[in-house]
Write a structure and sequence with these properties.
The model has no long low-confidence stretch (mean pLDDT 95). By secondary structure, the protein is of the alpha/beta class.
C-alpha cells in the first residue's frame, strides 16, 4: 500500500496549443480576431486598482442583471462562473447524478468525457451521422442527462431549435444542457425555450463572440430552481469565482453588444468567403455556423497539411482520433490572416 493509491488519476483535457512562434497566424483555438470593443477598453482604464484589495461581489449582481436584461430573463435565471469550462464542470457536478449514463455525441467538445471521469459519471457516446449531424431520435431514450454543443465542436454543425425542443420533450426526467459557445456566429439560440422547460440549461461564454478569452467568464441560463442548485454547488466550492476586474469588463461588454455583433458579422462574412475558396481547391466541410470551419481535402493528408502550414507560421487544430483524423479545424481570423492562409494552402497543394 502506498500514498499513491490515494491519489485521483485522470487523463486531463488537452487545450489548443498556445505556441510562442514569432509572426504567428494563430487559427487553432477559435479566438475572436477583433477583440472586445471600446467600452471594455474604457472599463479597464477606469478601474480603481484599490478595489483589488477587497473581495468582489460574490454573485456579480450587476453583471447578472445586465445579462438578464440582454437575454430577456430574470436575474435569478443567470449563473456566472470563471469561464464556461468552470460552468460546465459545475453543471456536470450539479445536474448529472443519476445511475443512468448521460448522453453526448462521439465527436464533440473533448472536455465532456474528462468531466465524467473526474466526477465518476457514467456516459454513453452517441455516434453522429456520417455527415456529422446529430440525430435527435438517438436521444429519445432513458438517460441520466443530455449535453451537446450547438453549433457542435469541432464540426460547426447545428441542430434546429425544433429538434432540440423535441429532445427536451422526450427527456422530462433529465436535465438537457445545450452548450452555445459559438451560437452568435450564425446559430439559433434556445434561450427562448427556457421559460417553457424547467429542465433546460443553456451555457454561453464571453471567450468567443465577446472576444474575452483572456478574462474567463462563462454563463449558464435556466429555470430559477436549476440555477439555484448551481449556485449551491458553486458556493460549496468557491464563493468568489468572478474577480472584480472581470465583472467590470463583462458589464462593459454587455453594454457594447452592438459593436460586438458587428464584429461577429465580419467573422461570418469572412467565413463564407473562405469556404467558397477552399471548396474551389478541393476541400469539403460541414456547413458551419461557428467561428471556425472543419475541412477535409479530397487527396491531401490532414496531418501533412497541418505540419506544412505550421512551417509557414500558421497554426490550425489537428485531431488525431477516429473518424476525424483527416480533418483540420480552422478558426476564422481577420481577412488579412485568412488571405495568407489561403495563399499558403494553395502553394502547399500545388507542391503536393
Amino acid at each position: 500500500m502506498s500514498w499513491r493509491n490515494n491519489l485521483r488519476a485522470v487523463e486531463p483535457y488537452v487545450a489548443g496549443e498556445q505556441p510562442k512562434l514569432k509572426n504567428l497566424i494563430k487559427l487553432n483555438t477559435n479566438e475572436n480576431p477583433y477583440g472586445p470593443g471600446r467600452l471594455v477598453k474604457q472599463a479597464i482604464r477606469d478601474f480603481e486598482v484599490d478595489r483589488l484589495r477587497l473581495y468582489p461581489n460574490a454573485d456579480a449582481e450587476d453583471l447578472r442583471h445586465a445579462l438578464a436584461e440582454y437575454y430577456g430573463l430574470k436575474d435569478r435565471q443567470i449563473f456566472l462562473g470563471n469561464g464556461s469550462d468552470e460552468v460546465l464542470a459545475l453543471t456536470f457536478l450539479t445536474c448529472f447524478n443519476s445511475d443512468l449514463p448521460i448522453l453526448f455525441p462521439d465527436i464533440t467538445y473533448s472536455f465532456y468525457p474528462v468531466y465524467c471521469e473526474l466526477f465518476q459519471i457514467d456516459y454513453e457516446l452517441v455516434p453522429l451521422r456520417d455527415d456529422f449531424s446529430i440525430a435527435k431520435e438517438d436521444y429519445f431514450k432513458e438517460n441520466g442527462g443530455v449535453i451537446f454543443p450547438n453549433p457542435n465542436a469541432p464540426t460547426g454543425s447545428t441542430v434546429t431549435v425544433e429538434d432540440i425542443e423535441d429532445v427536451i420533450r422526450h427527456n422530462p426526467n433529465s436535465v438537457v444542457v445545450i452548450d452555445e459557445a459559438y451560437v452568435d456566429f450564425g446559430g439559433d439560440s434556445v434561450v427562448k425555450l427556457i421559460d417553457r422547460y424547467e429542465n433546460l440549461l443553456v451555457i454561453h461564454t464571453f471567450s468567443k463572440f465577446r472576444g474575452l478569452a483572456g478574462i474567463r467568464l462563462g454563463v449558464a441560463m435556466g429555470s430559477e430552481e436549476l440555477v439555484s442548485h448551481l449556485y449551491d454547488v458553486k458556493n460549496s466550492f468557491n464563493s468568489y469565482p468572478i474577480d472584480a476586474l472581470a465583472q467590470a469588463i463583462g458589464l462593459a461588454s454587455v453594454k457594447d453588444s452592438d459593436v460586438i455583433k458587428a464584429n461577429a458579422a465580419k467573422v461570418m462574412a469572412t467565413r463564407e468567403r473562405v469556404v467558397k475558396e477552399l471548396k474551389a481547391m478541393g476541400f469539403t466541410m460541414p456547413e458551419s455556423r461557428a467561428n471556425f470551419i472543419f475541412i477535409k481535402h479530397e487527396s491531401a493528408n490532414a496531418k501533412d497539411l497541418f505540419m506544412k502550414l505550421r512551417a509557414e507560421g500558421i497554426v490550425v487544430r489537428y485531431f488525431n482520433q477516429p473518424r476525424i483524423d483527416q480533418y483540420l479545424r480552422v478558426s476564422i481570423g481577420t481577412d488579412e490572416q485568412m488571405d495568407r492562409f489561403l495563399e499558403v494552402m494553395k502553394d502547399i497543394l500545388a507542391g503536393a
